[in-house]
């Protein structure tokens, strides 16, 4: 069987036990009617009755499962679930009362058809599924439903990244909800969070709290990747009587070259690679023993050509300082940066004298600043202090297995083929989509 939606074909078997039983019932009824019909009347003459035609058990058929026929109060985030019998392909057409067609696409696992936008509130829709058999003949199923009234209590979601942004290979996708999502509701919300990447890469969502959910790939993004995301939460039940206010999308996030930095306390050197090639080794001075740099992996959070470090509030009037800084690249919320430090050039490559930052010469700091992008990863190793998760964008400081534990749904690899439904299977509307598919895990 193949199901074609919005020009895309998904291959798999479509005959379901429900469909087969319905077909068997029709055959039984037809056979019963034929058994009660005689080709002669009671006087022995030929009667006018004719045998009822038997339905073709191999004919294509379609059944719309969700939403139920004539249902009301349907979620504006509903998906269309249907069953096919003896069909090689199918198309879905969704129209509102004005005849406007709502586009959409099939989930990668074939479990449901997802509208490309939030449906209107208190709006009637008609859905038609057209199945095509191997003989080229078609069969249609049509159903109608009406969506819910506009909710009064809503949850907004905001994105750290904007459309057409450029980022490094370690950049996570980060979203914040205006209200905490109950733990019991997070799986349902996560099912409506879609990420697609070119080329296709494995990844997963991680709930850092009820208000923050982030996404990272299994490995660093491949250089030159293009990424799109849709958090399709408009009209979605978010728990406790609240609903998603609207969908939010991220379009055309561009990943740059694979710029990766490793600062080694043993050698007092930072090794900088670009797309797998070492482009420079930079002498550095790390944090002195009383204020060590943190060992672990972060990504660059923000960049300042010129800024001022003011530590009086943190360290007090005796230890605090206020110093102009050039080419500063933030690594942690605790105040660790890569930056120019002309005052420590004699120590760079030899000894640690900083307050936790990675010091380098003005020339090296400027060169590195011009090379890097927010989201480029930095690993520091061999210091007296370990990085604490949450002190910066520490997504890569967790192993993949640790990161997966923060997901409300099991991980499904983008390279895992979708299983063909069995003859007794009904498409599961709650199945997790391929995380790289468009309308993720």
Textual characterization of the structure:
The protein has helices at residues 17-35, 186-190, 312-319, 362-371, 400-404, and strands at 2-5, 8-11, 61-66, 71-74, 81-85, 89-96, 101-102, 104-106, 113-115, 124-132, 138-147, 154-155, 157-159, 166-167, 173-177, 193-198, 203-207, 212-217, 226-231, 237-239, 242-244, 248-255, 259-264, 269-274, 277-283, 294-299, 302-310, 322-330, 337-340, 358-360, 377-381, 385-386. A hairpin with a 2-residue loop joins strand 24 and strand 25. Strands 25-24-23-31-26-32 form a 6-stranded mixed beta sheet, with no helix packed on it. Strands 4-11-10-6-7 form a 5-stranded mixed beta sheet, with no helix packed on it. The protein is built from 5 helices and 32 strands. The protein is mainly beta.
Characteristic key phrases:
single chain, 441 residues, mainly beta, five-stranded mixed sheet, 5 helices, disordered N terminus
Strand order of the largest sheet: 25-24-23-31-26-32
Separation, N- and C-terminal Cα atoms: 25 Å
Radius of gyration: 30 Å
Low-confidence stretches: 1-47, 419-441
Strand content: 35-45%
Measured as a percent range, the helix fraction is: 10-25%
Count of alpha and pi helical runs: 5
Q: Summarize the main sheet.
A: 6 strands, mixed
Structural class: mainly beta
Overall pLDDT metric: 85
Give a quick precis of the structure.
Helices cover 11% and strands 37% of the residues.
What's the arrangement of secondary structure elements?
Elements: E1 2-5, E2 8-11, H1 17-35, E3 61-66, E4 71-74, E5 81-85, E6 89-96, E7 101-102, E8 104-106, E9 113-115, E10 124-132, E11 138-147, E12 154-155, E13 157-159, E14 166-167, E15 173-177, H2 186-190, E16 193-198, E17 203-207, E18 212-217, E19 226-231, E20 237-239, E21 242-244, E22 248-255, E23 259-264, E24 269-274, E25 277-283, E26 294-299, E27 302-310, H3 312-319, E28 322-330, E29 337-340, E30 358-360, H4 362-371, E31 377-381, E32 385-386, H5 400-404
Parallel strand pairs: 4-11, 12-21, 14-22, 23-31, 26-32, 29-30
Antiparallel strand pairs: 1-2, 3-5, 6-7, 6-10, 8-9, 10-11, 13-15, 15-18, 16-19, 17-18, 19-22, 20-21, 23-24, 24-25, 26-31, 27-28, 28-29
